Amino acid sequence: MIEIKNLNKIYLKGKKNMVHALNNINLKIDDRETVAIIGESGAGKSTLLHIMSCIDNFDGEYYLDNIDINKLSESKKSKLRSSKIGIVLQDFALIDDFTVFENVMTPLYFNKKIKDKKGSVMRALKKTGIASLKSKKVSQLSGGQKQRVAISRALVTSPEYIFADEPTGSLDSKTSDEIIKMLFELNSNGITIVIVTHNLEIANQCHHIIEIKDGNIIKDICS
Ligand SMILES: Nc1ncnc2c1ncn2[C@@H]1O[C@H](COP(=O)(O)OP(=O)(O)OP(=O)(O)O)[C@@H](O)[C@H]1O
């Protein structure tokens, strides 16, 4: 479960300018929900997703499964990320010169808990339907295939949460439908999915829609 209380994020631009990207955010996300974060460009969606993914700092309170994130050291946060969280960033964030297999292996290099690393990579690639592409370089793949690699990489540590930033942003509508279907299948297997999206059709398929405007939550609807 996710619980956020009075969370603020201020970016400093240069020495004088402050951007109040998130303003007193309060929200709850239950286990096994699908959540869409929507809002105009610059609203603060990615900032919120990065904070939930434990890759960005903030002021306020954030509890992930009752763990007080602001009390964790960087190394404990990184351990928590590698055990509970899968992240799918905008534009895939893959290493083009690595193979599919090597890209999906990257979160496991420093993971001491998972012993059968090769097996874990292959299981993640099978779940996303790209096991046959394992030896291909990412630079040779289509956008949809790259997104499947990014989702496999997020899955390889068997996370409880997947945070995806515009996972269909650069894909055609057919491929986009396939990727969303895959994320929903993962949800039906028990993973909580949080998606930042501009696409209202995708948002309307989610259990929970959070709309942000100018750093404020203006709607928080659970179906
Ligand atoms: N590293 C940063 N330094 C300074 N300002 C930032 C930084 N990252 C984001 N911002 C600012 O914070 C605000 C929220 O940005 P954010 O990227 O979270 O919006 P968004 O809703 O995800 O936008 P988009 O839909 O265009 O991706 C914007 O005003 C943005 O310019």
UniProtKB/TrEMBL annotation:
Establish whether keyword Transport is in the entry: yes
Give any GO molecular function from the UniProt entry. ATP binding
The record's listing under CDD domains reads: ABC_MJ0796_LolCDE_FtsE
Q: Which domain of life is it from?
A: Bacteria
Q: Name all ABC transporter domain ranges.
A: 2-221
Query: What Gene3D superfamilies is this protein classified in?
Result: P-loop containing nucleotide triphosphate hydrolases
Keywords assigned: ATP-binding, Nucleotide-binding, Transport
Q: What is this protein called?
A: ABC transporter ATP-binding protein
Annotated organism of origin: Ruminococcus intestinalis
